[in-house]
Amino acid sequence: MKTRLPRNRPLRPSQQLLANGPFREMCFRCLRPQHFCHCDTVPRIHNLTEVLIVQHIQERSHPFNTARMVGQSLTNSQLIVESPNRVSKHTDLLNPKGALLYPSPLARDIETVSVENCPEQLVVLDGTWHQVKQLFRNWPALSGLPHFKVFPQTPGQYRVRLEPDGHSLSTVEATVAALKILEPETCGFDELLQSFAIMVERQLAHPSAHYLQDQAPRKQKANIPHALLADLGKLVVAYGEAAPMAEKFRPNKAARLPV
Known about the structure:
alpha/beta
């Protein structure tokens, strides 16, 4: 078997800094560099509702992974990492009295749940919106669970990643918002959000951090040829309608041609 050697390509500036700079020691809990580690700020929360976090496999090594933060904080939680094609094999982990935190068309406001109908397990899908939709689509058992969603009172603070809209929440924010409603007497949720804020602020304070403040808002691309939009001053629009046919010239479908 032949071995393919990598080409000798020049390093990008960011890669040169890592190659020439000192080795960065990593934290093996949050998988962040030691000087960006936030593990000492993450509280231990003894939650009553079991939380099952299902993370898309492509999100596993993301540096701003809030699913790891939730699993690190909640004592009654479990984090599994799986690809969409294999996620259905974990159906035995689902509690029949559980619920899915997912904004599907059938999802209800979680604040409408009565005390006697509170779910024993809360399933949370983690990943980008596209990845989460893949997990949901490939796991039919999730459709049999009640679906709930949260309505945030304030915009999400996940400012180091681009969200679809101003009302989107990170995994840690959505999980905390739901648990605050299901078990309001449990302590530590505000401290977990504070830990999340510390992680975001530390990253934004990095000298080379250029995140959402430098990103232009996404524009919807219209299906218009570029030549028409280049110089609108030279654009001429012509409009016309066909003249209505006179009544006597309209063909009679019932009439027969003469023999």
